[in-house]
Amino acid sequence: MQITLNGQPLEIKQDGARKYVTFIPTSPDDKLAVDNGIYGNEICDINFTQTQLEKGETPTDFEDNSSEETLLSRLIEDAKEFAISTSGENTKNLIKLNSEGMLRRYIRDDGSSYYVAETSEGSVEITKDNNYFAEMVMGSDIFSSKIVSIDDFSTLLQQNSDSIQSVIKNSAGEIVNAINQSKDQTMIKASKIYLDGDVFAKKLSAQIANFIELSADKITSGTLNANNVNVVNLNANSIVSGTLSGINMRGGVLTALNSSTRFDLNSGALDFYTDYPAIRRIRTGYPNQFVQFGLDEVYSNDGTEIVEVASTAIGSNRLNNDVTTDGGFAGLRIFNSKKTPYVDRVQLIADLIEFTNTGDKAAYQNNIWMNLAKSKDEKTQLYPSYHKDKGEATLGRTGNTWSNLFTDEIMLNGVSLKAIINRLYRANGWGNIV
User: 210 and 292 share a domain?
Assistant: First the structure.
């Protein structure tokens, strides 16, 4: 067995059963080595028991590491700096301690390395290779981590007791994205900010000079309350859903999404392009009131064939629908055809029709047509005056009476007027006159 210092053999001394060597280190790179013993042609392993490293020229009794003061601390208690280095097949490692702290270094043959520096203030860890450099710093009031790509971007995350900062820089060292959080505010800097999910804002304010300019291709949901928002120069090519509300709205043309309705606000024209559009007033407890436009089929004026016509209805229905052919409708129906035979027809539909020059509720002052028929088989009765029971009836006007009345038959108390006149003529020998 042989013990060497930097390749030079040391004298092996003996104190009783113990063997020892003494040496004086002269450099942090000094190497203490033990060579195997060779006996004849055999290579033997050497086992050490109760190995102890200590200061001085005379060995002391062996002490294990469980003692209050370890052997290593006894060895370096007076040293200003202590270093241990090792070398492997692909690595070189170093541990160095002094009164300021400790450094650990691991270097691999491919150029990559890992450093850890520790002091009473905190620690720094660094790792790097040919492409990346990473650093982590931890202190009493700071934590930061940094990753740098040699030819590309770098990132930084820094945190202390009252702020958090994250930064992304390009290869030129310019900040391209940043989020700064402090106890007072949060600032986000980026060329593009993309939010994927629901976004809620308790308070939202924006001011650009003295106006706000909003450009939106699509506003698809929600409620825009003009009472709370003052928007100038709103550009919206397609607002497809939600509610747009405001006290005053100005514009040119309102068009339905399916193009079935068009309202030109400048000309006042309201156009419908469907078969049965309507303008309605609906109120609980009252009949539906409406103006309805539609298509229908009616007989020609001579009653010989059925003609397709456009129909216009103005009226109301106490059955709360828009039907103009049931018993609940009262109003006006207009039929007009574009193809021959032409139809130009107006219908007044009501149980009682008044012709008046006043809107007074006293109907007895008006000229009235009243339909008192109880079934379809009964004929409509005409009462030119409201007081029908008094027999008051006047055709024409005072001073401008009718000169001729053409009719098939006039009944007086159930007797034909034609029969009465002929009877009078025959009684005088004149024969029948009518």
Answer: no
Q: Is the pTM of this model over 0.70?
A: no
Q: Does 142 map to a domain?
A: no
Q: Is 400 in the same domain as 290?
A: yes
64: Cα separation from own chain's centroid: 71
Query: How many domains does the chain divide into?
Result: 4
* Residues 299 and 371 occupy one common structural domain: yes
The CA distances from residue 46 to 14, 35, 38, 43, 305, in Å, are: 17, 9, 10, 10, 130
Same domain, 392 and 413: no
Q: Does residue 384 share a domain with residue 427?
A: no
Q: In the Cβ-directed half-sphere of 297, how many Cα atoms lie within 13 Å? A: 3
- Coil, strand, or helix at residue 243? strand
User: Contact 362/368 with Cβ under 8 angstroms?
Assistant: no
> Does some domain include residue 229?
yes
In a domain? residue 154? no
Residue 364: φ, ψ to 5°: -65, -15
Q: Which of 116, 115, 153, 117 is nearest to 132 (CA)?
A: 153
Name the amino acid, one letter, at 239.
I
Host domain of residue 390: 278-406
Closest C-alpha among 362, 382, 361 to residue 371: 382
pLDDT means per 10 residues, the chain with 434 residues, are 84 84 82 64 64 80 59 53 71 79 82 84 85 86 87 87 90 89 90 86 59 52 68 66 69 88 91 92 94 92 88 94 91 92 89 69 55 56 52 55 71 78 75 60
Please give the backbone phi and psi of residue 419, each rounded to the nearest 5 degrees, phi first.
-65, -40
Contact indicator for 385, 393 with CB cutoff of 8 Å = yes
From residue 152, give the alpha-carbon distance in Å to each of 4, 148, 171, 190, 191: 50, 8, 5, 18, 18
**Of the residues 28, 53, 79, the one at which a domain ends:** 79
Element spanning 71, H or E: helix 71-76
Are 282 and 399 part of one and the same domain? Answer: yes
Q: Which residues does residue 186 pair with via DSSP β-bridges, in sequence order? A: 181
Peptide bond preceding 59 in cis form (omega within 30 of 0): no
Phi/psi of residue 56, nearest 5 degrees: 105, 175
The residues, any chain, with a CB within 8 Å of residue 136's CB and separated by 6 or more, are 124, 125, 126, 144, 145, 146
- DSSP letter assigned to residue 342: P
